[in-house]
Amino acid sequence: MLRIALQSKGRLNEKSVELLREAGISIGENNRRLLSRSPNFPVEVLYLRDDDIPQTVSCGIADLGIVGLNEVEERGHPVDILQHLGFGKCRLSLAIPAYIGYTGPGFFEGRKVATSYPRILKAYFEEKNIRCEIREIAGSVEISPSIGLADGIFDIVSSGGTLVQNGLAEVEKVMDSDAVLIGTPGLDGEKMQTVRTLMSRFTSVLRSRGKKYMLVNVPNDRIDEALEIIPSMKSPTLLPLADKGWSAIHAVIDESEVWDMADRLKAIGAEDILVLSMEKLII
Ligand code: ATP
Ligand code: MG
């Protein structure tokens, strides 16, 4: 039985639960139970604050965890990063009041920066050989400059809207983050086997996101041109139609390419373009 730690509430909770469900792993509805066992996969879910997930996995109380890479780096507990999961994307950046002219990282020499990520920031300044006073605070980091607590901040940024609202400008990106699957270093063989099954299911789920299945009828003498327009994972499926002189091409494509591709296919005489949503892509 594997134990996986998920955030109990917050930005990563819903997407983590959704990923497990899409991977065919049923878990109870009630997140308030701290520990809940899946009825159809040898896994139990432990719900925790995200701060506690790296340590819980590092020491083996949970075998796996889903948590932001930022949190993994900040806590510094040894864990294996097994898979990037592509959600919870954000970055950790330095920001200063927007009215101040920025001169480069040397700006921070002898200044004060407020953050909830002192460890990552310390490593960044050490690497750059900059002496900066780091003021650790737990929340509302972005108001620190306006109340005189610090000259700048180091915090999570996604759209940048919060910075702008607080009169701040992002000046250095220090790291990118997304949710990652982490594991206890040196899991035994039997557990690793289940972990591999889980990871390959996650890969299938992540690959099918943003994908569509397209069917298009093409005159036989335009097939080569059509195949140049349709990129394909391996080789697209080509089927003869009952109507001689025509074939159907089936392919998996990116959702973002649907309209452009359809226009180009129509321009070479393609007809009956059917775009379907894709449930799973298991490779
Ligand atoms: P907890 O109560 O579990 O300690 P928290 O308040 O520390 O939660 P959340 O705000 O829920 O944390 O954020 C969890 C993670 O989601 C962050 O560590 C980061 O990886 C990611 N994240 C945070 N803010 C954003 C954002 N604006 N956009 C995308 N991802 C984000
Ligand atoms: Mg937290």
TrEMBL record:
GO biological process, one term: L-histidine biosynthetic process
Signal peptide per UniProt: none
Catalytic reactions of this protein: 1-(5-phospho-beta-D-ribosyl)-ATP + diphosphate = 5-phospho-alpha-D-ribose 1-diphosphate + ATP
Pathway membership: Amino-acid biosynthesis; L-histidine biosynthesis; L-histidine from 5-phospho-alpha-D-ribose 1-diphosphate: step 1/9
Every Histidine biosynthesis HisG C-terminal domain range: 209-280
Activity regulation as described: Feedback inhibited by histidine.
Keywords: Amino-acid biosynthesis, ATP-binding, Cytoplasm, Glycosyltransferase, Histidine biosynthesis, Magnesium, Metal-binding, Nucleotide-binding, Transferase
Family matches, as HAMAP family: HisG_Long
Annotated function: Catalyzes the condensation of ATP and 5-phosphoribose 1-diphosphate to form N'-(5'-phosphoribosyl)-ATP (PR-ATP). Has a crucial role in the pathway because the rate of histidine biosynthesis seems to be controlled primarily by regulation of HisG enzymatic activity.
PANTHER family noted in UniProt: ATP PHOSPHORIBOSYLTRANSFERASE, ATP PHOSPHORIBOSYLTRANSFERASE ATP-PRTASE
Family stated for the protein in its record: Belongs to the ATP phosphoribosyltransferase family. Long subfamily.
The protein, known as: ATP phosphoribosyltransferase
Species in which this protein is naturally found: Candidatus Cryptobacteroides merdigallinarum
Source organism phylogeny: Bacteria, Pseudomonadati, Bacteroidota, Bacteroidia, Bacteroidales
Name of encoding gene: hisG
